[in-house]
Specification:
Elements: H1 9-16, E1 26-31, E2 36-42, H2 46-65, H3 68-97, H4 101-125, E3 129-132, E4 139-147, E5 150-154, H5 160-173, E6 177-181, H6 188-199, E7 207-209, H7 214-223, E8 227-231, H8 234-247, E9 250-254, E10 259-263, H9 269-281, E11 291-297, H10 298-313, H11 333-348, E12 352-355, E13 371-374, H12 381-384, E14 391-397, H13 400-408, E15 412-413, E16 415-419, H14 423-431, E17 437-440, H15 445-448, E18 458-459, E19 462-463, H16 470-473, E20 476-484, H17 497-514
Parallel strand pairs: 5-6, 5-8, 6-7, 8-9, 10-11, 10-16, 11-14, 13-14, 16-17
Antiparallel strand pairs: 1-2, 3-4, 4-20, 9-19, 12-13, 15-18
Helix pairs in contact: 2-7, 3-4, 3-5, 3-6, 4-5, 5-6, 7-8, 9-10
The structure holds nicotinamide-adenine-dinucleotide.
GO molecular function, one term: oxidoreductase activity, acting on the aldehyde or oxo group of donors, NAD or NADP as acceptor
Keywords: Oxidoreductase
Domain Aldehyde dehydrogenase: 22-481
């Protein structure tokens, strides 16, 4: 298979040249559909990470001094450039991750939506807030938002462009610099996006790219950061959170999931089947919010299962740089082996494969069939561990309470989906599930695409959040500037404390009565 025409050797040289690296070491980037090597990606050493932070810090001082309006003008140009060139990003993403083109295109839209949201919302979010101070009429207190400095941003391979650029956007607009460490497998598309930021007028050096395996440069990345934005597995999140804690810097950890979907008895199965297929198999099942557990009542289980399996068998799986396939490849052979091992473990312990269950070497080295299981029991690995592949299991339930209890029986709490004809009843069921995203009559996109609302994982699915006001404020420190018109707070040395206490209590009572404090 030949690479997309946009992926030229000149482009690859430009993108790999953006990595801060003096190590002489390289990671071989392969085209996932064929396993053929595409380019050597330079690797960074801890010293390179330090160099990257120093450069980002110098540029950040300039960037933060620009008025917000000027920074937003850069982001408006970036938005326009990405609208024009998004399909080149999709080409690179497909080469590096093997995802279907529809998904790669949608991922570029995520960055467009986040950018456009914060262009509109930033002036309100970052505005200084003046309050009456401690002494009414005599004092003021103003909350001022100051950029943290340079953010260490670590992203995974599954949604590399969104988890890099969308999470960098509020940080940058708020006046920060960024040192970005994408996964080795998925750096080129991210570098292309960073190139667009520079083309749009961002000061030289503000966003730096470093590359390497976590254990090699992870510590240096956090050591030099003023805040860490991490998306990835729960296991890595624990390591990063511990180091950030040691350094007393803040972090956001967006981690894994084992997301449930409940079909209520009055749900419209036409909608449920189509929605569940999408929510389960999008991005070849490598989405943190995708569905890996489906709960259906005993009464509707047979009909649901028959129709769902039929729909899954109709999924077109292929590797192509066009929009025809429904589903692409898994990201790598080790990922395919992990998914296969989960299915084989379940089958060995008595589960039934209703469809799929096998690799597709005829399509490429990392392809795996869309797979539906039943008869999954708690002793099987895939009952509780995130599989992160095109595999789901159907579980019958006898009552809604039992379905909710099963949905909550997990260490994770990222996303949950509930389908029902009575929307209020479905929403009430959804609110009982311990997850940061609840989607009623949708699998995941409804909540994820609502950029005005803040969301993040409950339980082992994360710490902190993204999107909404909190998704930008987290990248700032708040400074409380309090001004007294006249010094009335210091008691003179001869203060009569009996009278003073009495006066203070009366004053506080009066303020409460007037509703001032
Ligand atoms: P991972 O944790 O192995 O790697 C993620 C990133 O962290 C990579 O860039 C990796 O190189 C880096 N890394 C690894 N060890 C590190 C260390 N010690 N210090 C610093 N960086 C380190 O995760 P993955 O397998 O690449 O990604 C898939 C996981 O990400 C899944 O669990 C998925 O659910 C999760 N995810 C979560 C969200 C979300 O928003 N909650 C979104 C996408 C993916």
């Amino acid at each position: 298979m030949s690479l997309p025409p946009s992926v030229t050797s000149e482009l690859l040289a430009k993108l790999t040249g953006m990595v801060v690296s003096t190590s002489g070491r390289a990671y071989p980037v392969t085209e996932v559909y064929t396993g053929e090597e595409v380019v050597d990606l330079p690797q960074s050493d801890p010293a390179d990470v330090q160099t990257a932070y120093a450069a980002a810090r110098a540029a950040q001082a300039v960037w933060a001094s620009w008025p917000l309006k000027r920074r937003l003008a850069v982001m408006k140009r970036f938005h326009a450039l990405l609208l024009e060139q998004g399909l080149i990003v999709a080409d690179l993403m497909q080469v590096e991750t093997g995802k279907a083109r529809r998904m790669a295109f949608e991922e570029t839209c995520d960055v467009l939506m986040v950018t456009s949201h914060y262009i509109k919302a930033a002036p309100r979010i970052l505005k200084e807030r003046k309050h009456g101070g401690v002494v009414p009429l005599m004092s003021t207190s103003t909350e001022v938002r100051i950029p943290k400095g340079v953010i260490g941003l670590i992203s995974p391979w599954n949604f590399p462009f969104a988890t890099s650029l969308s999470d960098a956007m509020p940080a940058l607009i708020a006046g920060n610099g960024v040192v970005l460490k994408p996964d080795n497998k998925s750096t080129l598309n991210v570098a292309y996006g960073v190139g667009l930021l520079y083309e749009a007028g961002m000061p030289a050096g503000l966003v730096q790219i470093v590359c390497g395996e976590g254990p090699d440069i992870g510590a240096a990345l956090i050591e030099n950061a003023d805040y860490v934005m991490f998306t990835g597995s729960t296991a890595t999140g624990r390591v990063i959170g511990a180091q950030a804690g040691q350094q007393l810097i803040g972090c956001t950890l967006e981690l894994g999931g084992k997301n449930p979907l409940i079909v209520l008895d009055d749900a419209n199965l036409d909608e449920v089947i189509a929605g569940t297929v999408t929510a389960t198999f999008l991005n070849t099942g490598q989405a943190c919010m995708h569905i890996e557990r489906i709960y259906v009542s005993e009464r509707r289980k047979d009909e649901f299962t028959r129709r769902f399996v039929e729909a899954v068998q109709a999924i077109r799986v292929a590797g192509a740089y066009d929009f025809s396939p429904d589903m692409g490849s898994l990201v790598s052979v080790p990922q395919r082996e992990r998914v296969q091992a989960h299915v084989e473990d379940a089958v060995a312990k008595g589960a039934t494969v209703l469809t799929g269950g096998k690799p597709r070497p005829d399509l490429g080295p990392a392809f795996f069939e869309p797979t539906v299981l039943t008869g999954v029991t708690p002793d099987m690995v895939l009952a509780r561990t995130e599989t992160f592949g095109p595999v789901t299991a159907i579980y019958p339930y006898t009552s809604v309470d039992a379905a909710v209890a099963m949905a909550n029986d997990t260490e994770y709490g990222l996303n949950a989906s509930v389908w029902g004809g009575d929307r209020r009843a479905a929403e009430a069921v959804g609110r009982r599930i311990e997850a940061g995203n609840i989607n009623v009559n949708d699998g995941l996109a409804a909540s994820y695409a609502s950029k005005k609302s803040t969301s993040g994982g409950f339980k082992a699915s994360g710490v902190g959040s993204r999107h909404g006001d909190a998704g930008m404020l987290k990248y700032t420190d708040v400074q409380n500037v309090a001004v007294l018109k006249k010094q009335v707070l210091t008691n003179p040395p001869d203060t009569d404390w009996t009278k003073q206490v009495d006066k203070t209590i009366k004053g506080l009572r009066f303020l409460r009565k007037l509703g001032i404090r």
